[in-house]
Amino acid sequence: MSSINRQWVLRNRPKGAIADGDLELVERPVPETGEGQIRVRTLYLSLDPTNRTWMNDSEGYLPPVGLGDVMRGLTLGVVEDSRSERFAVGDVVTTAAGGWADYAVMNAADASRVHRAPGLPLTANMSVLGMTGMTAYFGVTDVLKAKAGETLVISAAAGAVGSIAGQIARQRGCRVIGIAGGPEKCAWLTRDLGFDAAIDYKNEDVGAALDRLAPDGIDLNFENVGGDIMIAVFNRLKV
Ligand SMILES: NC(=O)c1ccc[n+]([C@@H]2O[C@H](COP(=O)([O-])OP(=O)(O)OC[C@H]3O[C@@H](n4cnc5c(N)ncnc54)[C@H](OP(=O)(O)O)[C@@H]3O)[C@@H](O)[C@H]2O)c1
Q1: Structural domain of residue 9, as residue ranges?
Q2: Same domain? 120 vs 8
Q3: Residue 59's pLDDT is what?
Q4: Can you tell me the distance from the alpha carbon of 201 to that of 204, in angstroms, rounded to the nearest whole number?
Q5: Is there a domain that residue 239 lies in?
Q6: Cα of 187 to ligand 1 centre, how many Å?
Q7: Does the pLDDT at position 40 exceed 90?
């Protein structure tokens, strides 16, 4: 174990895009593990759109990251020290209590054991078997209750959530139209992921493309972006 813990600390609340100086890389000693706690060495960090919202000084579904605090993030890591009966050294866990750092000491209750699926890489637990996969799965099945024959439009379709949501909807028999930026991403959606159609929002008018691809209207929208794209889809929903 290294005795140095590199951490990204939030120094300024960004205005718009994150700029130099908003985050600072600092080196601190690795903290001691207290009673009921574990020390986790980070193996993977999930960088998600929601990270940016946590930098704002406004209450969301989680409180803002404090200035001077380690930046919050979902991580997957290995337990290197344990003073809890819940975890043994060597266990692999996911947690939101570690953040953008090499090491974190946390209460054992703040970590969840990773159940490894045979034949899948560890990173699957941060994608299709993790938060993004669950967001896509429950969004399609539980929120939208997508049914065979329905036309579903997904924005940010080549992103982490959208790309999985589209594949789940196809398996349920939906007709899936993805919206993504650029010809490569659109080709990936239709050629590799089985989407029925893709709209390149950077090079074509989304509304006109939706009128062409879904002339009878849209049944369902898995919305990942908002703004003009969302309005173009909403205006064509069968409601
Ligand atoms: N990841 C999760 O576990 C999770 C959980 C709950 C909710 N969510 C929410 O789900 C949504 C998607 O998350 P994600 O993790 O899939 O994101 P992601 O993989 O980072 O994909 C984001 C994509 O959004 C598109 N985008 C960004 N700004 C845009 C704009 N102004 N107009 C059009 N497209 C734009 C870009 O697609 P192009 O490259 O195609 O332009 C970008 O690649 C977000 O709203 C996020 O907050 C995510």
Answers
A1: 4-126
A2: yes
A3: 83
A4: 5
A5: no
A6: 18
A7: yes
